[in-house]
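testing teh design pipeline on a random one, pls ignore if ur not involved
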């Protein structure tokens, strides 16, 4: 049983990634840490609680983290995720509260307490991870693994022409993570785009009871409209693709690479420059997921969307 800590800026696709993890029998979600991103961090904390309530999950602790990036003001994506971050679908408010311990401290403490056991899955800007790394320089060696949905291989941006949102929302944090040996399994934007779920299949999946019909259909309605307006061939689920690669490594093709993050400039800020390993090259500091099998992702979505409260481990 692998133990996960999920760092999230929930977000609609974060919510689906969380459902995948809760439904997977091979992993246990030890804790959540929340970070600014799609919506302000306090709303992210509320959203994690709302998703856990929706599937009857147990008291998994939530640690609230950074309200803004290391440098500059926060960037949000309410135009995609709605003002509340879960598609403005009206999910009931949660009574769950964040623990008193700030997320970066909790991340460092949990990594020490479970040395060699934890898989850290980061689904948002890397501010909490960079702060935890500054507090606990041994973090890379204490973790069993580190997965990040973020960045782009060939500078195909979704927030600017060249920057993916999680990298753009805190480039300094991303740069620090790559420079200080965290060696992420990075799931970039181009890989996410190629792992879309065709509309006909998506419609069948969200019709599944109980979670598909009662939760996912509602929170994804807005994103679905956006994907269709931009003539996407199917549903794009960045964080669910990353979670699939995290919980089932066999579904992901990966390549060693050197990644550097642009923190200067105006036009290129948040660009992740990816150089695949090969002579001559700088030292490798990441693995890039270049493909995720959509049949594996579909099977995980099916299991998550038919999750019953008694099926949720915790
Ligand atoms: O670029 C997509 C990423 O940014 C996803 O993690 C989404 O939830 C937002 O955080
Ligand atoms: Ca996210």
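output:
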């Amino acid at each position: 049983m692998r133990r996960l800590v999920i760092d999230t800026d929930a977000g609609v696709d974060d919510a689906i990634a969380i459902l995948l993890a809760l439904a997977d029998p091979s992993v246990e979600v030890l804790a959540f840490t929340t970070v600014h991103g799609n919506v302000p961090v306090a709303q992210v904390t509320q959203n994690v609680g709302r998703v856990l309530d929706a599937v009857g999950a147990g008291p998994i602790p939530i640690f609230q983290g950074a309200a803004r990036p290391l440098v500059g003001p926060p960037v949000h994506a309410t135009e995609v995720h709605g003002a509340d971050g879960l598609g403005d679908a009206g999910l009931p408010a949660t009574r769950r509260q964040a623990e008193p311990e700030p997320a970066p401290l909790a991340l460092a403490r949990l990594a020490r307490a479970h040395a060699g056991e934890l898989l850290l899955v980061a689904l948002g800007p890397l501010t909490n991870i960079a702060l935890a790394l500054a507090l606990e320089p041994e973090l890379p060696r204490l973790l069993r693994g580190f997965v990040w949905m973020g960045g782009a291989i060939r500078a195909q941006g979704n927030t600017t022409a060249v920057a993916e949102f999680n990298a753009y929302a805190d480039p300094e944090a991303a740069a620090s993570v790559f420079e200080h040996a965290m060696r992420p399994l990075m799931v970039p934007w181009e890989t996410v785009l190629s792992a879309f779920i065709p509309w006909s299949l998506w419609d069948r999946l969200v019709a599944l009871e109980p979670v598909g019909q009662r939760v996912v259909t509602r929170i994804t309605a807005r994103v679905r409209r956006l994907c269709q307006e931009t003539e996407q061939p199917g549903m794009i689920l960045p964080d669910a693709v990353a979670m699939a690669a995290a919980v089932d490594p066999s579904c992901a093709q990966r390549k060693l690479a050197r990644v550097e993050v642009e923190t200067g400039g105006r036009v290129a800020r948040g660009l992740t420059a990816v150089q695949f390993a090969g002579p001559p090259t700088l030292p490798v500091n990441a693995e890039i997921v270049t493909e995720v099998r959509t049949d594996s992702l579909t099977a995980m979505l099916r299991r998550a969307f038919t999750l019953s409260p008694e099926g949720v481990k915790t």
